[in-house]
């Protein structure tokens, strides 16, 4: 999705914007642009394609100026092109805007503005804002921006500069993320904290319909009526180098390898002894409220949805609460029935996913209590939730979510165990066994990472095939779906995650020597059935990669290649099966020479519906 950076100070605005845009690259983009104010004029530079084109352009001809805004564009309205790249400039050439979001009524505004003599140069929805600000500008940039956004419907975070106001940067948001970074004699704006973490660890998190007037000396926050707002400074909790690749070739690889430590952080303060009840901070629910729950609805997108499916399984299995899990983009459409004492659990790494935020608002509106499971602190979803449980993964930059998935699953498990303990719905011996296994999970994760070379060998055997099935049953069905998503999003191999039980109802028609099947067959309730399903694939000459417990000669004897995992209780095995499947996707994409951290067409944080 689009990324915004802005700077006002005494250093080169273009360089600071460019560095910030590089840190937003993970969000996905197809073009980029920077505008600065210099000597009472705007100077704008735009490039299509990678930011390296902007690096080269600025090396060739500098863009001096100490006030500027930058943007990476992920095309929605109009194809990637120089004309459609931001910043967009007003008809009189004095005002430049960058935008993240979608302006829904841009069509009618465009017609109206053309009728009033404004000249459009792009097909974007954003350009209306540049002309609207010009229309309302009478010397006060903040006033003009506020008046302009009152005409808009949709989602936006804007950064706006004007050649006639060389000492002001104005930013405003509704529904799209925006932070203001605080420096000494210099200040910043950005779509997320990571873009400016190298510059400062102090930010204001801007809320809907709030405006920031930013100068070199300070920041004034107001609402759209101009009333001043007080805001606490948020201190970014991770170090400046947390978002660096270090010795790893790709962020995805680094993040897969961070999982043992991240798991320790997720467990810390919550579970330390299998004989003691676990604590789950952030839930913001009393024991009576947990006991009174009648329904739990998990909702999320993509990888987080798969974690929600694990949550649904465990919530019913252990805490005996009827549970559902919906794709956030579909939840509102099906108009779900919300009973008294319904808990909605939105799950999101970024906390900014538009579909998940909309689902949260819809469920709150229907009377559900909403406790979110999040990674990024102080996100839009966090601020609108009744409680927020943090997965403690640290920054995740790779577009393909890895450590966040594992920790979302771990948090789902902690939540189900906690509810089961409070409600007294599960055998204490089982709860003890699961808690003990969770406590050992960082060691299992470290062990699985030591086996990376074995996964590389499997990847080398199959990376040239074009199609894959990922099969599992029960609590590992989401593991199969997640394994398939990981593979398709970074390697572009067509992969589908299915219940192995569904194969005979259609998909088995596709089985052939050119389609490989990853079969998750760890010991547990569904193990015997998985053996039968593997045989059905083999009987149709389909190559099988088995994922099974160490020493399992039965699966080992049937599969063409093996990925071994340490045996754990089946209910926590989604945590052990996830890691080698992440590595498999990574190494297949690596063998194919794909751009793993910036897969085509994808954005890390999807801030539009
Ligand atoms: O930030 P979120 O967890 O809300 O993001 C949800 C999905 O967009 C995300 O998980 C996406 O599916 C990833 N590309 C998966 O690797």
Question: How would you characterize this protein structure?
Answer:
The protein is α/β, with parallel strands linked by helices and 609 residues long. The protein has three domains: 3-243, Glutamine Phosphoribosylpyrophosphate, subunit 1, domain 1; 245-445, 3-Layer(aba) Sandwich (Rossmann fold), CATH 3.40.50; 451-594, Glucose-6-phosphate isomerase like protein, domain 1 (Rossmann fold, 3-Layer(aba) Sandwich). It has 19 helices and 24 strands. The strands form four sheets. The chain has an eight-stranded antiparallel sheet with strand order 3-2-4-1-10-9-11-14, with helices on one face. Strands 5-6-7-8-12-13 form a six-stranded antiparallel sheet. Strands 16-15-17-18-19 form a five-stranded parallel sheet, sandwiched between helices. Helix 12 (380-384) links the parallel strand 18 and strand 19 (387-390). Helix 3 (106-115) packs across helix 4 and helix 7 packs parallel to helix 13. The longest helix has 23 residues, at 428-450. The mean pLDDT is 95. The site of 5-amino-5-deoxy-1-O-phosphono-D-mannitol (M6R) has 16 residues, from helix 9.
Topology:
Blueprint: E1 3-8, H1 13-23, E2 31-38, E3 41-48, H2 51-60, E4 67-73, E5 88-89, E6 95-103, H3 106-115, H4 127-136, H5 141-149, E7 154-162, E8 169-174, E9 179-182, E10 187-190, E11 202-205, E12 210-214, E13 219-223, E14 234-235, H6 251-257, H7 259-267, H8 287-291, E15 295-300, H9 302-319, E16 323-327, H10 328-331, E17 342-348, H11 354-365, E18 369-374, H12 380-384, E19 387-390, H13 403-423, H14 428-450, H15 452-462, E20 467-472, H16 477-491, E21 494-499, E22 515-520, H17 527-539, E23 544-549, H18 553-558, E24 561-565, H19 573-591
Parallel strand pairs: 15-16, 15-17, 17-18, 18-19, 20-21, 20-22, 22-23, 23-24
Antiparallel strand pairs: 1-4, 1-10, 2-3, 2-4, 5-6, 6-7, 7-8, 8-12, 9-10, 9-11, 11-14, 12-13
Bound molecules: 5-amino-5-deoxy-1-O-phosphono-D-mannitol.
């Amino acid at each position: 999705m689009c990324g915004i950076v802005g700077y006002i100070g005494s250093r080169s605005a273009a360089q600071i914007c460019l560095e910030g845009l590089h840190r937003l690259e993970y969000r996905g983009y197809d073009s980029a642009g920077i505008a600065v104010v210099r000597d009472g004029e705007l100077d704008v530079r735009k490039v299509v394609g990678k930011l390296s084109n902007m690096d080269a352009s600025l090396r060739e001809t500098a863009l001096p100026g100490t006030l500027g805004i930058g943007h990476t564009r992920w095309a929605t309205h109009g194809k990637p092109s120089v004309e459609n790249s931001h910043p967009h400039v007003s008809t009189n050439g004095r005002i430049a805007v960058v935008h993240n979001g979608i302006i829904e009524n841009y069509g009618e505004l465009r017609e109206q503005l053309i009728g009033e003599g404004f000249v459009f140069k792009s097909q974007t929805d954003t350009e209306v804002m540049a002309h609207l600000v010009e229309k309302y500008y009478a010397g006060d940039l903040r006033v003009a921006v506020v008046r302009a956004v009152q005409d808009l419907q949709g989602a936006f975070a804007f950064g706006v500069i004007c050649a006639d106001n060389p000492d002001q940067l104005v930013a405003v948001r509704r529904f799209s993320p925006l932070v203001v970074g605080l420096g000494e004699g210099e200040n910043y704006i950005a779509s997320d904290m990571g873009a400016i973490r190298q510059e400062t660890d102090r930010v204001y998190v801007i809320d809907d319909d709030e405006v920031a007037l930013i100068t070199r000396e300070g920041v004034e926050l107001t609402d759209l009526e101009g009333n001043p707002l007080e805001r606490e400074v948020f201190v970014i909790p991770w170090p400046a180098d947390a978002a660096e690749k270090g010795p790893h070739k790709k962020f995805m690889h680094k993040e897969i390898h961070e999982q043992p430590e991240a798991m320790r952080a997720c467990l810390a303060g919550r579970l330390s002894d299998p004989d003691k009840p676990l604590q789950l901070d952030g839930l913001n629910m009393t024991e009576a409220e947990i006991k009174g729950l009648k329904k739990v609805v998990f909702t999320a997108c993509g990888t987080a949805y798969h974690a929600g499916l694990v949550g649904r399984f465990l919530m019913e299995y252990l805490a005996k609460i009827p549970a559902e899990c919906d794709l956030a983009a579909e939840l509102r459409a099906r108009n779900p029935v919300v009973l008294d004492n319904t808990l909605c659990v939105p799950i999101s790494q970024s906390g900014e996913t538009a579909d998940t935020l909309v689902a949260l608002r819809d469920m709150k509106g229907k009377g559900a209590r909403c406790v979110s499971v999040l990674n990024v602190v102080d996100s839009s979803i966090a601020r609108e939730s009744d409680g927020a449980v943090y997965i403690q993964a640290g920054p995740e930059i790779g577009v393909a979510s890895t450590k966040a998935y594992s920790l979302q699953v771990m948090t789902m498990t902690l939540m189900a165990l906690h509810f089961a303990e409070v409600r007294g719905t599960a055998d204490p011996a089982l709860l003890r066994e699961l808690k003990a296994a969770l406590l050992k999970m960082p060691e299992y994760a470290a062990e699985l990472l030591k086996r990376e070379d074995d996964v590389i060998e499997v990847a080398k055997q199959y990376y040239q095939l074009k199609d894959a099935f990922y099969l599992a049953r029960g609590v590992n069905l989401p593991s199969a779906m997640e394994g398939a998503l990981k593979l398709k999003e970074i390697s572009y191999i067509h992969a589908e995650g299915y219940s192995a039980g569904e194969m005979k109802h259609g998909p088995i028609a596709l089985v052939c020597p050119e389609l490989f099947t990853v079969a998750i067959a760890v010991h547990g309730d569904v193990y015997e059935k998985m053996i039968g399903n593997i045989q059905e694939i083999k009987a149709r000459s389909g190559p099988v990669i088995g994922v099974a417990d160490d020493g399992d000669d039965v699966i080992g004897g049937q599969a063409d290649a093996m990925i071994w995992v340490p045996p754990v209780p089946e209910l926590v095995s989604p945590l052990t099966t996830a890691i080698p499947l992440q590595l498999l996707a990574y190494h297949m994409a690596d063998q194919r020479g794909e751009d793993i951290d910036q897969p085509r067409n994808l954005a890390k944080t999807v801030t539009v519906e």
